Amino acid sequence: MSTMALAVTAWLAAAVVYRALSMRALSMLCLVEDHDFDPVPPEGALVALRPLHGFLTRLEFSLETLWRAAARAGLHVIVGATDREDPALRVAARVAARWPGVRSEIRAAPGLAGLNHKLANLIQMSEGIDHDLLLLSDADVAVPEDYVLRLTRPFKDADVGLVTCPYRSVPAAGLASRIDALITNAHFLPSACLAKQLEGLHFALGATIAVRATALAEAGGFEALLNTPADDFLLARHIERAGWRLAWSPMVVDHLLEPEGWVAAARRHLRWARVVRHMRPLGYIGQLVTHGSVPALILAAMGVGVWIPCAWWALEGVWLWRRRKTIGLRPSDLVAIPLADLLAFAVFLGGMRGRARPS
Hints:
By secondary structure, the chain is α/β, with parallel strands linked by helices. It folds into two domains: 3-29 and 263-350, no CATH class; 46-259, Alpha-Beta Complex (Spore Coat Polysaccharide Biosynthesis Protein SpsA, Chain A), CATH 3.90.550.10. The chain has helices at 3-29, 59-73, 87-98, 117-125, 147-152, 175-199, 213-218, 231-241, 261-279, 281-286, 293-301, 308-322, 324-327, 337-350; strands at residues 46-51, 76-81, 104-108, 133-137, 141-142, 160-164, 167-170, 208-212, 245-248, 253-256. A seven-stranded mixed beta sheet has the order 3-2-1-4-8-6-9, with helices on both faces. The protein has a three-stranded mixed beta sheet with strand order 5-10-7. The longest helix has 27 residues, at 3-29. The protein is globular and about 70 Å long. It starts with a helix and ends in a 9-residue tail after the last helix. The mean pLDDT is 92.
């Protein structure tokens, strides 16, 4: 075997080890039974902030899940937009009308000028509110009924300043959306779990985050993030630097994908990849080892074994199928694994160049 073939074989072996470890981390950190779970919400004022922007096909459903969770836990819900004519506000008003027992507000104001429009929205939404804990979530996120209780449980430890939890993408109709979800659920989610397991928790996942009001204030508030591209990552970093501990909840929330097509999905994944590269440049380069399809195909092209890519994808299929409940995998998704793998590698390469931009 040539020197190059040996090097590529070592790359593939490293990818197998990495994937095995990341799948194990996924099983250990997502949807695990919390034997110490307390069904009583923490003391203090709980406020949910959900920034809105534009119409989403499943927005009403995602908001309905938030109001349902709020009704169970006495959560004060605030949604907002920077444009008073934003169609999402009308959807929110319909949902709020169905839950008269939930204290809710709809706020609309331009907010501060800055590169990160979501943060500008959060700043105007949070003005003058009385709160001890803030629960932040994106407009396209659906949450379970016990969302508030599970996400806030770690705050029973007085040194916890922020809580984050994993999320899985739920595809809309069409192949593009299925591949989009697979890239997140089969690549990003296991990698995030392994990073937490190996390095400790030094980041937050932006689908939903809970933060203690005093920790947020000591970290500079939302204003410190107004011109940053990676607000979730930097929020966690600022809070940790202020002397607070970050905590992980094993609850998994759903990120509801839009039927936006190949180009829009690719742009979103590229933006995420560039943000990761911007925040963790060495770690991003190290992601090369995670893409086992590439060395498997190279070995097949070199004549070492045409069966190697098939064996890799079969192994991936077994690993993912065993965790189908966690990542929402369907039988029909298994045949899309090779395409998702190759497109994930294309996103990785594309993320090596270009500027990280705010959402």
